[in-house]
Amino acid sequence: MKFLGIIPARYASTRFPGKPLADMKGKPLIQRVYEQVRQSVDALCIATDDERIATAAEAFGARVVMTSDRHRSGTERCYEAYHKSGISCDVIINIQGDEPFIHPQQIELLKSCFEKPDVQIATLVKPLDPDGDFEQTLFNPNSPKVALNSRLEALYFSRSVIPYLRGRKHDDWLAAHTFYKHIGLYAYQIRVLREIVALPPSPLELAESLEQLRWLENGYKIQTAITRQETIGIDTPEDLQQALLMMND
């Protein structure tokens, strides 16, 4: 099975304009992501609508595919990039362009989901630390949670806490139940990707602003795999400063 990794990257971010080009100790953020995953896929490209990002990516040797500036999501950008790339593959992996600490092992874990031939879409989840701060993790709307069935398929994603633990104090919840946060890394069979980008936004998606709910509402199954490794997304300049403090090089 052949895996194509695509890193969607856009310049116009509301909270952090030009984020893919932000300097991380001599390398742009997008390069840090690219170098973390390039050995874990059969082919890898950056999909962007901005010439500045394209120029920077080509300078460090990345393959770049120019895409429309009208896409509503990284999923749509990935599908266009796949068609324009001319690369033959079985599965596309949508790699977040703002997570420079993504682990190659997480890509391998995601790929392993497709050892089961009926998997349509795969993603990663991570158990929340039972000793963590429930306000910063469990009750953080910017960190979507996911409920799973016995086959590790996603039942539902939410910005709210799922499940709700009746009869317990909030500060006991993390210790009393295993909650999972969603790691925003997706892989799709080509046929399935073609179908889901044609779907209109769904009621649950519009309510929670989570595109994966559109897929669940339309009957697609999302297989998950559990990672114990933390990833850190950079959404703001303040996040970048924190990330720089964590870097070893």
Task: Kindly describe this structure.
The radius of gyration is 18 Å and the shape is globular. With 249 residues, the chain is an alpha/beta fold. The chain has nine helices and eleven strands. Helix content is 29%, strand content 22%. It has helices spanning 29-37, 51-59, 74-85, 104-112, 173-176, 190-196, 203-208, 212-217, 237-246, and strands at 3-9, 23-24, 27-28, 43-48, 64-66, 91-94, 121-127, 145-148, 154-158, 180-189, 222-226. The two termini are 34 Å apart.
Descriptive labels:
22% strand; 249 residues; nine-stranded mixed β-sheet; alpha/beta; two-stranded antiparallel sheet
Summarize the structure in short.
With 249 residues, this protein is an alpha/beta fold. It contains 9 helices and 11 strands.
Q: What is the percent of helical residues?
A: 25-40%
Structural class: alpha/beta
Radius of gyration: 18 Å
State the total count of DSSP E strands. Answer: 11
Roughly how many Å apart are the termini? 34 Å
The proportion of residues in beta strands is 15-25%
Number of helices: 9
The topology string of helices and strands comes to EEEHEHEHEHEEEHEHHHEH
Low-confidence segments, given as residue ranges, are none
Major β-sheet profile: 9 strands, mixed
Mean pLDDT: 94
